[in-house]
Specification:
The protein is mostly helical. Helix content is 72%, strand content 0%.
């Protein structure tokens, strides 16, 4: 039963199990199975992060980026995103790219955005593939290259990105 499973996960987390901590954090963050509780999510994300979870580091970055639980702090968000990226989180790599792309908390830098999107795209992150395609299509931070943009949109669409599929239709690509 769910109550027993949650109890087991919490006990495992108390004994330093990073995966259990991440699962409790995600359930608390999303409000699935457990009530949505950002305080609990932050606590368990920190535990998972201390065990080296790049995904937990990404979500801590999100909490600072969004300002939902912690006071909005883009420097702290970037710090956590960078730690997450260093620990293999493609979502953290993408988030760093988005910050540079949009100039959120940092100076807009399309070249830096492209660098981070490329790292995440190499790990098949569909958001990174889509955003990198946009940069190639518009020649922002990378040379304008419609062939590369289409290739990236196609890959993102094949991985299930609906926005990329819409871009391919817009460009009349099959």
């Amino acid at each position: 039963n769910k109550t027993e499973a949650i109890k087991i996960l919490r006990n495992a987390s108390d004994f330093g199990d990073g995966d259990a901590s991440l699962m409790i954090a995600m359930l608390s963050y999303m409000g699935e199975t457990l009530p949505k509780d950002l305080k609990a999510a932050a606590k368990y994300f920190r535990r998972a992060a201390s065990c080296g979870s790049g995904m937990a580091m990404f979500y801590l970055g999100n909490l600072f980026d969004e300002g939902g639980y912690y006071k909005k702090d883009m420097d702290e968000a970037m710090r956590w995103y960078r730690l997450g990226a260093e620990n293999g989180s493609d979502d953290a790599m993408t988030a760093i790219g988005v910050l540079y792309h949009n100039g959120s908390g940092v100076k807009t830098d399309f070249k830096e955005a492209a660098k981070w999107y490329k790292k995440a795209a190499d790990l098949d992150n569909t958001t990174a593939l889509y955003n990198l395609a946009l940069l190639y299509e518009n020649g922002q931070g990378v040379p304008k290259d419609m062939k590369e943009a289409v290739r990236l949109y196609k890959k993102a669409a094949q991985l299930g990105d609906e926005d990329a599929a819409k871009e391919l239709k817009r460009l009349k690509v099959k």
